[in-house]
Amino acid sequence: MDWFKKININIFLLQIVFSIFLFFLYSGFNYEILYFENFSWFLKPSITNDIETYWISWEFFRNTDYLQFPLLLNPNYGEGLNVSIYHTDAIPLAAFVFRFFSEILPENFQYLGSWSLLSFFLMSFFSYKILNLFIQNKTICFVSSIFFLIAPPFIDRVFLQQAVSSHWLILASIYFYYSNDIKYKSWNLLLIISILINGYLAMMVFAIFTANIFLLHFKTQSSQFFKKFFLSLALMSFVSYTTGLFSIGKGIKEGGFDLYGMSILGFLNPSSPTGFYSIIFDNLLSSSVLFVKEVEGFAFLGLGVLLLIVFILLKFRSKTSDLLNSKIHSPILLVAILLFIYSLSNNIFLLGNVDFLGSERIFSYNVPEFLEPIVKVFRASGRFSWLLFYLIYIFTFVRFSEFFNPRKALTILCILFLVQVGDNYRIIRIFNNELKSTPIHSQALEKIKLKDPIWQTIGTDYEKVNIYPLINKPRDYTRMAFFASTEGLSTNFGYFSRINHTIKERLNNEMYMDFNNGDFPEKTFYVIQDDDLWKALLISYDKNISSVFIGEIDGYKLLIPGFNK
């Protein structure tokens, strides 16, 4: 029985309601994270402090020129490093749109909480659209779609890494793949949107688009689809270049491909950077032995979905080969498998970072030279398991709906949904504690502000603050960066996903020469985080030299040329 159809329930409104409910369930019903002026929840470093730089970088970007090139360059945050808003993962699309309204937006405006809520809804929307292509019963479709909202790899990041947690982009592209009425222009729009949100997700969307191109070619035997492929590739490259994705040059290539992979049995691994995602598995298996944390390769299916798979396998106990007769088309499945192989990296583990036998890894290989540019750009290879993850979800719910009558299927789905939520209750509690325990906005503002009255004078008289040595994510950089953004100063520092190390070393050398020569740029002061240099500077610039102030204020060791305290 299709209850929704019978009583004419508006599915769209239900999606909104359940998205909001699950958003608040996992956030501890903390509606304050939706307040545009509330950044207090960013200042909790116990899980991750990535979100701090998303907001800080936006505070600098909102004051950039509209007609600059590249369009998303963020020149005053990490001045000289040529970084863009891409390189802080601050959701470039949202930053670009909101910048046009910067003058009327409140001070310390943040859009990250709202983006998390939007992601919940879009996960529900596109998962339902996909399932409804294969499942006629709308009630079953809707209940099944809710599982996507609590998919562990999505939940694990949705409050912490808003850009890369936009998994609805993957679902949207899967829907485009299976739908027969999606036009080429819609694909291009999705490709542009994805590249303006996150590069990893954009590559997954492009991979699914490629699978779609090949599928259409096989159906029609027309070469026009390959022309469309290259045109779309050119479009993505153009958008990436003009908006600043490649602004850091060779800095976009970073090492670490061998460190951020997926394990072979990663879909069964409930251990993530956030915490242990399963109460049941935690009781059955030792997390210290078998489940070592995976940073980027976390893709646990969830206990409820695993039990659904067991139901399916039991139905196939005498005809397992029928699994191959699914509605999963071969091009997208092939792409998903290839991406999964890539997600394993060149260091292969069975489960987590140790296998069942206790060895460190079961296999490793040297990356071929021609692949090195790719693996350096897309070093967090474990993320590429997500396409296969969501195809497993789709396959599971579609096949399950075929084996049971609607009433029985709905009962089982509701029970297993509660099992899925209950089994990851520990994560709900972690997020609840983190987000509910944040100070109120006024307290957070007071916490992050520099206290000494001297800062008011410095903010008026100076235009730039440099940290030496320049590194990616200097210690205690947040307060100084917030001060700089508030006062309209530029910085040579920040926290970036990628950085051009050649430029960084050149800037460090230039600053060191300035210290030696005593010849400093105008209206620039320095934060010294090198203890040996600080001792040398204390000797070189004594208190009798009126042209240079050197001393410690609010925990920062400062050298301020042309300043008298």
Describe the structure.
The strands form two sheets. This protein has a five-stranded mixed β-sheet, with helices on both faces. The chain has a two-stranded antiparallel sheet with strand order 1-2. The chain is globular. It is mainly α and about 575 residues long. The longest helix is centred in the middle third of the chain and has 22 residues, at about 200-220. Helix 13 (about 305-315) runs antiparallel to helix 17. Among the domains are: about 5-210 and about 220-235, no CATH class; about 445-560, no CATH class. The protein has 23 helices and seven strands.
Write the layout of secondary structure elements.
Blueprint: H1 3-7, H2 11-26, H3 50-61, H4 92-99, H5 112-132, H6 138-149, H7 152-158, H8 168-178, H9 184-195, H10 199-220, H11 224-243, H12 279-284, H13 303-315, H14 330-343, E1 347-348, E2 363-364, H15 372-377, H16 386-403, H17 406-423, H18 425-436, H19 441-448, H20 454-461, E3 464-468, H21 477-487, E4 490-491, H22 501-517, E5 524-528, H23 531-540, E6 548-553, E7 556-561
Parallel strand pairs: 3-4, 3-5
Antiparallel strand pairs: 1-2, 5-7, 6-7
Strands in their spatial order, largest beta sheet:
4-3-5-7-6
Termini distance? 79 Å
Oligomer: single chain
Question: Helicity range of the residues?
Answer: 40-55%
Class from secondary-structure proportions: mainly alpha
